Amino acid sequence: MSIAPDTTAKFTAYAHPERLVSTDWLAAHLGDEGIAVVESNEDILLYSTGHIPGAVNIDWHTDLNDEVTRDYIDGEAFARLMSAKGISRDTTIIVYGDKSNWWAAYALWVFTLFGHEDVRLLDGGRDKWLAEKRETTREVPSPEPADYPVVPRNDDAIRAFREDVTAHFGKPLIDVRSPEEYSGERTHMPAYPQEGTLRGGHIPTAASVPWGKAANADGTFRDRAELEALYLDEAGLQPGDDVIAYCRIGERSSHTWFVLKHLLGFESVRNYDGSWTEWGNAVRAPISIGSERGEAPAPARD
Amino acid sequence: MSDAAVPAALAEIIDDFNAVTERERLELLLEFSDELPALPERFSDHPELLEQVVECQSPLFLTLEVADTAAHEVSLYFSAPPEAPTSRGFAGVLQEGLDGLPAAEILAVPDDMPDRLGLTRAITPLRMRGMTSMLARIKRKITESLAG
Asked: Which residue in the set A45, A127, A192 is minimally distant from B89, CB to CB?
């Protein structure tokens, strides 16, 4: 069953307008057959304080990650999760969450690893729904378990690993963290606990484009012209580029991945989810500090 | 788990968390979030008197007052917005467990106390570090207050 896209004017300018819905659209379609609404936040308790009626919660940390190995769940676990949430393979999933949908974008990106076809973000996310004083509830739905096929996870197209980054030098890297993290100023402050990495700075040649710049104050995505100014004019990306984005664990860079892939239409965009927690702790991983992008490292000597 | 350095009120909270399932622990944390006392006016009117614990993923502010008595009882005050329930929940645990206790007792609380609540699987490591940082900041402010 196919649910028609939201034809809001702002969306039609994007490369893939069918990847976004507005709060008006969702309010009109809540409860429609074939739609599942998923809330995904950074704060595991936030859903319980009130959510869009009928929305189920998927927690990135406990639901989408393997408990032992630093990796995402496999196809079997994903099928079990979708089934438990009442989601079938052809369900239209609308994902939303806090802070401009940063964690919702992360969940959407993981769903994309399993090839779930129709996943969309609610533009403005949780905060916009609340700001518009729309209905919320603390009631947790009990969906009928759905049939969901076991689909092997496919990382190739949209996920980058450390070795992919090493092979990527010469092509664009986007560091979406704050300027202080990018420059290496912020690893830890005196007398405060460690941030979690042994070294600060950024991957050499990466451009600094803090992820939040892609969003308006109300959490919605900026329009196409503004996004092109940011990523093409300022950061120097060209249409057709093969891009890798990263942050700390890939959470903020999922938001940027969504922007580059679905809003600006870059065909080849990957999220390096190991991100700085891997690179900044990795022995011999080349690092640039300060506000300059830095030079690509010389190829390794054998 | 018994540990002489954990004050009674806090020990009871730790026991409450450990006595229930993980899902119920999250519900319990949410209760602490809901019940976190509002700031008294002298602080809500003067946000500049509060200190931010930047390690927390959400804006969490705290301050404390140390009594001018032999025991130096400590009064704790926290502020975090309603859209930060996990931070508020942690603050609520510390509030209920430590508010009004003598400075020495709070300083003796084990630094890893947040790890004893049975939340380390469900709550991300970064957020657990936030709660540890709250406790560390409280201890540091007490130490500074006693020295100054």
From this structure: A45
* Contact residues, B window 49-108, toward A, CB-based 8 Å cutoff: 54-55, 57-58, 82-87, 89
Q: Given A87, A203, A237, A247, which residue is catalytic? A: A247
Pairing of strands B61-66, B74-79: antiparallel
Contacts of B48 (CB under 8 A, 6+ apart): none
Q: Which residues of A225-248 are buried (b: 16+ CB within 10 A; e: fewer)?
A: eebbebbeeebebeeebebbbbbb
Query: Distance (Å, rounded) from C-alpha B56 to C-alpha B128?
Result: 9
Q: Which structure tokens are listed for A294?
A: 């830095």
Q: Is A190 on the interface with B (CB under 8 A)?
A: no
Q: What is the ipTM of this complex?
A: 0.88
pLDDT of res. B27: 96
Tell me, what's the pLDDT at A189? 45
Q: What is the pLDDT of residue A301?
A: 55
Q: Give pLDDT, residue B69.
A: 96
pLDDT over 70 percentage in chain A: 95
State the residue for tokens 């003796």.
Answer: B108
Distances from the Cα of B42 to the Cα of B33, B48, B60, B63, angstroms: 22, 11, 18, 12
A240 near B CB under 8 A: no
CB contact under 8 A, A43 and B140: no
Alpha carbon distance B11, B7 (integer Å): 6
Q: Nearest CA to CA, how far is A41 from chain B (Å)? A: 11
- In the predicted structure, residue A300 carries a pLDDT above the cut 80: no
